Amino acid sequence: MSPSGQPALQRDPPSSASLKTRNGQSHPRDVRRAELEARITQQRLDISHAMQDLETATAPIDRGWAKIQQYRGPLVLLGGLIAARGGFKPKKGLSLVKRGLMGWVMIRRLRVLFNK
């Protein structure tokens, strides 16, 4: 929109016919501008394609991060309880952490075993 409230007119890139001066020759500045605009357009397309490739490549990471964020509250609460327990009875808290870690490792190994 222009300051007067009228929609701004879109300019089409200059064609080779519109680049010619009165004597039939193109002005070097106009030719250079057209080349640069074409180059910028191609770079924008390349960037767009690269972004799509990047999104496809990082999709599994994004899904994993979303899953972690989903369980963030319970994990923070569990960590707080373990830390509080460790403050009052350090040996008991450490043994709970070891048991929890061992249980997690066993569950992962059982999943691998049963998925074969």
Structure description:
- With 116 residues, the protein is an all-alpha fold.
- It has helices spanning 28-70, 72-88, 90-115.
- It is elongated.
- The two termini are 62 Å apart.
Strand content: under 5%
Could you say which structural class the secondary elements and strand pairing correspond to?
A: mainly alpha
| Oligomerization status of the protein chains | single chain
Annotation field: number of helices: 3
Radius of gyration: 31 Å
Q: Sheet with the most strands?
A: none
Structural descriptors:
single chain, 116 residues, mainly alpha
Topology:
Elements: H1 28-70, H2 72-88, H3 90-115
Helix pairs in contact: 2-3
Short description:
The chain has helices spanning 28-70, 72-88, 90-115. It is an all-alpha fold and 116 residues long.
